[in-house]
């Protein structure tokens, strides 16, 4: 066998079937399983991409130092350009972080349950993964986490904020205390859903060198298929990441789309406000009218988590699929066997989901 010994022992990131793609031409499909935006990106994105197809240098490699894109991101996050860099998705960034900062045998700690792709990337290069679990209410005990960090001495701690899939929003004051108390530990804070809660660690990179914030254009900006994200960190960390970053891998379509999306933040803000309103209303209505058969958890992301009895869950998922509504099953995750995750879209879209949910319960 020629396989890397670390890859050989790595548990793969569990993908779910993209059943919705079977009905890609059907405009009635409601895809609520992967937390993408449920509407197209800003019209400015379509216009910019159309112009690129007609007039762009598609025979050239993409811009390897897109100054306009970096400047646009810097304005958006209100930080110097030296503190950020763009990548072909936040997943790609996570892989670079592992390559740049983690060596075989290093311990990393993952606050769980959470997005699992970073764990797989770290294991594939020889990292040893420890888990710190949220409590039964999906809350984080900060003192217990600090105690475990003290004992295990991980090289890196991965936090998702807001957390996916639980929706938990972590306190920035407590995260700052952890970063301050453990300066020899690198903290990776995944802010893929930042826009839906407005809670961020980003300004702390000007004070601390042991923090990297990852973000994406896949959620609020509706660019999931183009795969683009960015890092926010101390300039020294960005410089080390740049040593191994392949700038040709961020395709020109993604760069142009991201610039266009950032030129229309009003469009994004309007969509985010719509989602937040639909999310909070949906949680309240489910918990008020489902008689306890389904319990909705509040969330800081563009999704909600539903606890549903095991005797109902499979039938519920199948019922929705027959209606061409697709949600995420979490049966494969420890402690989440009774849960499903539902992406939240516009009020009209969630009205349809809510109607089918109560139809099922009846």
Strand segment count: 13
Share in helix = 25-40%
User: How big a fraction of the residues is strand?
Assistant: 15-25%
Alpha-carbon distance between the two ends: 55 Å
What is the chains' assembly state?
single chain
Question: Average pLDDT across residues?
Answer: 94
Rg over alpha carbons: 21 Å
The string of secondary-structure elements, in order, is HEHHEHEHEHEHEEEHHHEEHEEEH
Please mark out the parts with pLDDT under 50 across 5 or more consecutive residues, or reply none. none
Gross morphology is globular
Derived from helix and strand composition plus strand pairing, the structural class reads alpha/beta
Per-chain topology:
Layout: H1 5-9, E1 30-31, H2 43-55, H3 67-77, E2 84-87, H4 90-101, E3 107-112, H5 117-124, E4 128-133, H6 142-152, E5 156-160, H7 172-181, E6 186-190, E7 211-216, E8 229-233, H8 235-244, H9 252-262, H10 265-289, E9 294-297, E10 303-308, H11 310-322, E11 325-326, E12 328-329, E13 339-343, H12 347-361
Parallel strand pairs: 1-11, 3-4, 3-5, 5-6, 6-7
Antiparallel strand pairs: 2-8, 7-8, 9-10, 10-13, 12-13
